[in-house]
Amino acid sequence: MASAVASRQRTSLKAANQLWERDRRGAAKMCFVAWMLWLFLGRPLQQQRTEYDQARELIESSNSWLLRLQQERGELQEQLLSALDQVRQLQDAWQAEVRIKDGLVGELSQLKDADCRRRVIASNLQVAGSAVAAALRVNSPIMERDEEEEEEEDNENAYPDQYEA
User: What span, in angstroms and rounded, lies between the C-alpha atoms of 11 and 9?
Assistant: First the structure.
């Protein structure tokens, strides 16, 4: 059986060689045409594939940059919102302080007004008291005696040797 298989293989090989010999020129033409197609189409296709790969890599790197930038933008937005909240809190605190200070200024002005009124009243009372005292001194004989006694005491204190005898 092995010899039958070997004989078939030899026969097939002879037939292939005969076909090859006959069609050698046609096969050469086909090889030439294939080579020419590769020159005119294969190289540009290969260049297109290279350009396509480069463009794809550029797009992928651009997409990664976009993702990174979007993440940074999100982080910056969060920071901005946090800063805005802090600013609002500061504004509220400042407004509260301004209201407190305005209240204190109002209280201080009221106290100053009350102090001024008290001083005016005190000075008016003092002037009135002085006027009343002066009026009493002028009209009262008791006051005149008291003034004379005070003068004598002042003199005694000033010149004690004269009054001791």
Answer: 5
